[in-house]
Design brief:
The protein is 42% helix and 20% strand. The chain is of the alpha/beta class. It has 2 domains: 243 residues, TIM Barrel, CATH 3.20.20.20; 89 residues, Sulfite Reductase Hemoprotein, domain 1 (2-Layer Sandwich). An 8-stranded parallel barrel has the order 3-4-5-6-7-8-9-10, surrounded by 6 helices. A hairpin with a 2-residue loop joins strand 14 and strand 15. Helix 2 runs parallel beside helix 3, helix 3 runs parallel beside helix 4 and helix 10 packs parallel to helix 12.
């Protein structure tokens, strides 16, 4: 699927937009001033496939921590700014790679202009984050409710300020907890703005609800060629976001170094303890960066046929399984050796 053509924006050593690639992002949930905890979380996020990470800048102590965090990590860092534009200015001086602003709560135009001037001087892009829950009061009142059109009006106001200052290193996002509103807003934005779009469903909830909402909304947009960077929001450990986004991009054929796990739902024919094997192999595959299809099948009825189409597979029997490599049975295994041998074969693939 070819991406909608957008301007390219440089964030540190990562390019957003202007290419047929979608950049994966996440956000730390550690206090940024807790430098060591934040560094450790960023490193785990990067190991899981994150390419850009955002941090909350709540006060000047958070802003001052950016310098040490940046020195100890390898991926671009984004400062998340609300209410106080001076925090953005401090983050810029500390070496941040990108600023995220919610124009609805940043205050007067001159505050935005001060941030734009500093970003322009330091060649730092700005993401204008339009959130359905924090639109300007007059826009909300004019439409009577949150609408995609109101979100466009909010974005246009703030894009106009940046463009009037000859600033074009802009990324836009239009997040809502309503997947259908997200789809409508991003479609309108793709038609109206030349800037790269950061996709996301905000406040999406737990892993299950987030996976469903995000796949519905963001999968739809990705398959229409809309979106240049993405974050899937999950309550809790941000590292839990990455397996979901990797699989979503894999399904949309936008990434090719992610394993594919096939597993049958089980039925009364299943005569071995399959679920713990599937769970352990799924967790193991989340650490693997290669294009390999692994099938774990429950019985001899469909198992061998389905497994034949995988690179590596198990077709279960009675407390045992057949290990299959590219359609050829290579070994019969007792259940207690299945996980060990599957991991060996995946690593050797």
């Amino acid at each position: 699927m070819k991406r909608t053509q957008t301007r390219s924006v440089q964030v540190g050593n990562v390019t957003i937009g202007g290419q047929n690639k979608v950049i994966v992002q996440s956000m730390c949930n550690t206090p940024t001033k807790d430098v060591q905890a934040t560094i450790e979380q960023i490193r785990r996020l990067q190991a899981g496939g994150c390419e850009i990470v955002r941090m909350s800048i709540m006060d000047m102590e958070d802003a001052a921590a950016i310098t040490a965090i940046k020195a100890a990590t390898q991926i671009p860092l984004v400062a998340d700014i609300h209410f106080d534009y001076r925090l953005a200015l401090a983050a810029i001086e500390a070496g941040i790679d990108k600023i995220r602003l919610n124009p609805g709560n940043i205050g007067k135009r001159e505050n935005v202009e001060a941030v734009v001037n500093a970003c322009k001087a330091h060649h730092i892009p700005i993401r204008i984050g339009i959130n359905s829950g924090s639109l300007e009061k007059d826009i909300h009142d004019a439409y009577g409710k949150v609408t995609a059109q109101g979100m466009m009006e909010s974005a246009r106001r703030h894009v106009d300020i940046l463009e009037s200052m000859d600033f074009h290193d802009i990324v836009l996002s239009f997040k809502s907890s309503d997947p259908l509103l997200c789809i409508e807003a991003y479609r309108l934005a793709a038609a109206q703005f030349p800037y790269p779009l950061h996709l996301g469903v905000t406040e999406a909830g737990t892993r299950m609800s987030s996976a469903v909402k995000s796949s519905m909304a963001l999968g739809t947009l990705l398959n229409e060629g809309i979106g240049d960077t993405i974050r899937i929001s999950v309550n809790g450990d941000p590292c839990d976001e990455l397996p979901i986004v990797r699989q979503l991009l894999k399904c949309c054929r936008l990434i090719d170094h992610v394993p594919n796990l096939i597993a049958c739902p089980t039925c009364g024919r299943t005569a071995w303890d399959m679920q713990p094997v599937v769970n352990e192999i799924e967790a193991f595959l989340s650490t693997i960066n290669k294009d390999v299809t692994v099938a774990i099948m429950g019985c001899v009825v469909n198992g061998p046929g389905e497994a034949r189409h995988a690179d590596i597979a198990i077709a279960g029997g009675r407390k045992e399984g057949l290990l299959i490599r590219r359609g050829e049975i290579i070994e019969k295994l007792p259940q207690d050796r299945i996980v060990e041998r599957l991991k060996e074969e995946i690593l050797a693939f």
